[in-house]
């Protein structure tokens, strides 16, 4: 009986070995790799695609900058063509009168808001030379080879110019425009400007005409100034009414003084102001006591001691 039981156990054991045993499967405790997808493949970022994307974005930004530069270059190029079409050797524009104590910062601010710079934006980036004086000009050569050179000049006892070409004050680069401050006297210029076209040259003394306050006519020079229209009668009336509300003017009139519009204008703080004088009239002559500038509903008072305009209110 024992032999039969032992034999039966051996048969069962052998059957188990032949069939094999399978252990239950345990899930792996290993964490998935970051960036791994369901198939077990790891995603790799395409750096080249990112770089191309950044390059495209930069390309979108660059055309804007290029467009601004091209616009300014185009305006300068068109002006040079106009100079040549008029058979002139240089282009000159009058900004107007400025403070003789202007710094470069003051000048930059002045140019930013001036109507001539709005018409010709490249002037805000032009070269600048500030000689002694109160008149401001823009000078442009006729082509890309042309240069602008500024020399000191004086007047002799005989009323003739004495130019010193041995010591240039400013020498421009080819094709470069210049913003020039000069001239204390309204009678003569303290500089000589020479502009070449790559071959010949034209020399002139920039000045303001005493007839109309415009750029004095110069042979071979193209005037590209932007002259503002003369104020109409209604504008003068409005400016007069503004002054009549100012206490100092009202008191002066009560004391027998007179207020007169000079017919002139001046750029003050970037605005074109009509000029008025308050003074006494003794029948033989009018004696000016105070000079006022009016524009944009603002009153400016001229200080003869500091040679400056100060806002009244």
UniProtKB/TrEMBL annotation:
<feature type="region of interest" description="Disordered">
    <location>
        <begin position="27"/>
        <end position="67"/>
    </location>
</feature>
<feature type="compositionally biased region" description="Basic and acidic residues">
    <location>
        <begin position="44"/>
        <end position="67"/>
    </location>
</feature>
<protein>
    <submittedName>
        <fullName>Uncharacterized protein</fullName>
    </submittedName>
</protein>
């Amino acid at each position: 009986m024992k032999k039969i039981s032992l034999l039966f156990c051996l048969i069962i054991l052998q059957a188990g070995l032949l069939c094999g045993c399978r252990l239950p499967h345990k899930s792996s405790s290993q964490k998935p790799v970051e960036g791994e997808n369901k198939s077990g493949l790891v995603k790799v970022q395409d750096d080249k695609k990112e770089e191309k994307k950044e390059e495209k974005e930069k390309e979108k930004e660059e055309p804007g900058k290029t467009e601004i530069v091209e616009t300014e270059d185009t305006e300068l190029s068109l002006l040079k063509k106009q100079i040549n079409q008029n058979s002139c050797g240089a282009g000159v524009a009058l900004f107007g009168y400025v403070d003789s104590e202007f710094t470069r910062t003051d000048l930059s601010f002045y140019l930013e808001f001036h109507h001539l710079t709005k018409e010709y934006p490249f002037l805000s980036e032009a070269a600048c030379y500030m000689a002694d004086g109160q008149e401001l000009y823009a000078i442009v050569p006729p082509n890309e080879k042309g240069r602008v050179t500024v020399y000191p000049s004086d007047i002799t006892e005989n009323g003739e110019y004495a130019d010193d070409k041995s010591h240039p004050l400013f020498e421009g680069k080819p094709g470069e425009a210049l913003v020039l401050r000069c001239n204390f006297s309204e009678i003569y210029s303290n500089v000589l400007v020479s502009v070449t076209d790559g071959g010949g040259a034209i020399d002139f003394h920039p000045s303001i005409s005493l007839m109309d306050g415009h750029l004095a006519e110069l042979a071979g020079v193209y005037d590209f100034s932007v002259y503002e229209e003369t104020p109409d009668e209604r504008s003068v009336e409005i400016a007069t009414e503004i002054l009549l509300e100012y206490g100092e003017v009202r008191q002066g009139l009560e004391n027998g003084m007179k207020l007169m519009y000079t017919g002139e204008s001046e750029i003050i703080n970037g605005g074109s102001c009509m000029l008025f004088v308050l003074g006494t009239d003794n029948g033989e002559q009018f004696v000016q006591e105070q000079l006022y500038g009016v524009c944009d509903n603002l009153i400016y008072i001229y200080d003869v001691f500091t040679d400056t305009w100060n806002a009244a209110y």
